[in-house]
Amino acid sequence: MYTSLGGKIERRLALVILFTGAIPLGIAVYLANALFKEASAFWFNPEVGRHLDQGILLYKAYVQVIKEKAFYQAEKLWENPSIQKALLHQNQAAIQTHLDPLFDQDPNLVGVRVLEGDQIHFEFLKKHMSSSFGKRVFEVRKTFPLNPRVTLIALFSLEQEKFEHFAAGGAFVSHYHGLVHSRSELYQGYIKAFALLLGITILVTCTIGVLFAQGITRRISRLSQAMASVTKGDWSVRVPITGSDEMTELARFFNHMLDEMRTSHARIEYLMRLGAWQDIAKRLAHEIKNPLTPIQLAVQECHRQYTGNDPKYSKILNMTLEIVEEEIGILRRLVETFSNFARMPQAEVAPVDIGDFLRECAEQWNTYLETEDSFLSLSKEPTSSAPIGLHDLRIQWNISTRPMPTWIDHQMLRGALINLIRNAVEATQQYGEKTPAPSGEGQQESVTVRIHATPRGRQVCLHIEDSGPGIDPLLIPSIFEPYMTTKPEGTGLGLAIVKKIIMEHGGSIDVSASKNLGGACFTILLPMREDKPQAEVL
């Protein structure tokens, strides 16, 4: 399904990129074709070719006139009797005398040569000949009538530029006629070039479009697969964070949303279970509490009404009364615990700095430790264990001096901390390490509790760790469940109550092994004070 979805998006993106590149190019091809046809119709007009040909013919006629004029001048030159006589007598000075006026009359005449055989016999050049070097010189030859071995050569010059213009014009006209004859082939060549360019553009655009689309659809597919996994109840799935664009931000927000949903889902499930256990505790408290008083009164009445002298029976009766009253007392405290658990109030939070609150607790509890009062009597959970000596309980405080404002219910949070300390003490009583007594006589149980408080981002972090035996890793996932206990006579409500209190404050609690003291380490996270937290109740 997701592959099909990705394929559809890939095709759509590729088509969008293709049309974006191909449509303008197609329009350009159409306009170029129209422009070529219009230019071809204008430039390849037969009238243009005819006028060009007439221009070349006119240029040829002009050159021919110049040549004919040169031949005419040469004829006049050789037919001059004076020049013929001077040539016959080989009088060079006389020849030069007769040529100078002719050089002045005809600017194109630049020299005369007399060849005898292949050798130059005489050569007469126009004065200032250097000015004619930029011109084109052509010869007019004629055999001397009076001596066939003598060849007369008249040298005429024309401006080189005129010949270059004529040559360039001829080449242009020839090229133009070539274009006219190959116009259809040229047109087809341009069309094929544009078609090839269009094909290459389509191929490159499709390739780039597919690659670009795959980069997007691959991440969309991952996001879709993750959403499908979430709908099936898998809250552990996460979308890989790659890149730095909007899709990356979407993946990051999606993972953050999953974290929040997973936490909320776990809290809701826990609160539902806790609500069910509260209802059970309420029923049990009611069912157990009602017959306790009649049972106690009945036993006491039996004990009071007996007036016999049988010592054995009296001893049994006294022992029975003592056992019943002791067990009823334990049951009453158990009923009271159940009732308190079933009637847990909603937290009435107030703004406070958690550092000030803990320093106040430290001062109060140090006072308790210095008196004869039992520190553990602050907790209401029943136990048959003998309280540990107060001098064997050491509470160490490590409170950050930085501000840690939050919302708390003083009484409830204080009770939660006392409950955690009590668990450490009772675990040490039952399983704890043995340390030498201060007097050196025998062994006694000792426990150290260390409380850390530091800000962590927008949360307040509390670490409560102890030197007790710790918690079995197999029990950690269910340690906060109601009626989960490792104590022979415990109710298993202490940690459940603690977690409920922390959740009432909008926080969370977790447990792990203490790296410093070797026992358990409870981590409590409470939100910093911004808005008043919403109590999480069922």
UniProtKB/TrEMBL annotation:
GO molecular function list: ATP binding; phosphorelay sensor kinase activity
Every HAMP domain range: 214-266
Annotated ranges, domain Histidine kinase: 283-530
Residues spanning the signal sequence: none
EC top class, as a word: transferase
InterPro entries for the chain: 2C_sensor_his_kinase (IPR050980), HAMP_dom (IPR003660), HATPase_C_sf (IPR036890), HATPase_dom (IPR003594), His_kinase_dom (IPR005467), HisK_dim/P_dom (IPR003661), HisK_dim/P_sf (IPR036097), Sig_transdc_His_kin-like_C (IPR004358)
Reaction equations catalysed: ATP + protein L-histidine = ADP + protein N-phospho-L-histidine
Protein topology in the membrane: Multi-pass membrane protein
Presence of the UniProt keyword Nuclease in the record: no
Location of this chain's protein in the cell: Cell membrane
Record-annotated membrane-spanning stretches: 12-36, 190-213
Xref: PANTHER family: SENSOR PROTEIN CREC (PTHR44936), SENSOR PROTEIN RSTB (PTHR44936:SF10)
Protein's name in the database: histidine kinase
Native species: Pajaroellobacter abortibovis
